[in-house]
Amino acid sequence: MITKRKNPRCKEDAERLQAIFKNVRANDRSMTQEKLAFICGWKTQGAVSQYFLGKMPLNFDALLRFSKALHVDPAEISPSLAAQLPQPAILEKPQENIEGDSEERSQLYDLMHLKESIVRFGPEPECRIMYEQAKESEPITYRYAWLRARGINPENARRFKVSEESMEPFLFGDDSVLVNIAETDIDNGKVYALRYGNDLRIRRLFKKLDGTLLLRSDNPGFFDEEVAPDQVNRHITIIGRVRGKFGSGGL
Hints:
The protein is α+β, with helices and mostly antiparallel strands. The protein has helices spanning 8-27, 33-40, 46-52, 60-70, 74-77, 79-82, 103-106, 144-149, 229-235, and strands spanning 111-114, 117-121, 129-133, 140-143, 157-161, 176-180, 191-196, 199-207, 213-216, 225-227, 236-246. Helix 2 (33-40) crosses helix 3.
């Protein structure tokens, strides 16, 4: 039986590539293998994994895609392959503004496609929050830079559909909201998604000094609701702060 020996260059390139990726990810936690695959123009994360593991040797095309996506010289990934490049590689950083509708621009690096989530709650008293992607949901595209500028880690971004009229005219039924699930401390007057018993509610919240929670609707047809501290702990969980909205409700 003949055993195939791995190409030493392939193994060394893979190790350098992984090290560069880890360094980039240390400074930008939103950089995942899935995001890197999207930046490079591959449909799935599988190609990235194959290159990282050295199962697939780098070629000129893959080398240039990785170097451009990770903002490094091709020689930092594969010195031997870079020396054979027919012409110097020009590295370009992602453009700050997305304009036009060309294919090149539509594949820009800094995009995140976020579908709506369905939220479910476990039994009391833990009321564990579980998220499930809505299968029929059309994704909305956000820029990673836009999220980071607002202090939102993309891993903590969720979208929920608005299902009631309590926040009209700020939010209408069938609109969707972008929620940062890492923001659970109440900033009085801001809008939050919360668990109310077994339901998802969107409300402006105010917290009193004694711990009483005031739930306010923008729709004047809905009354304010005060929840005592002991009831807050039992029946309410702050899911996160609403940081964006999308929809044509009311039009």
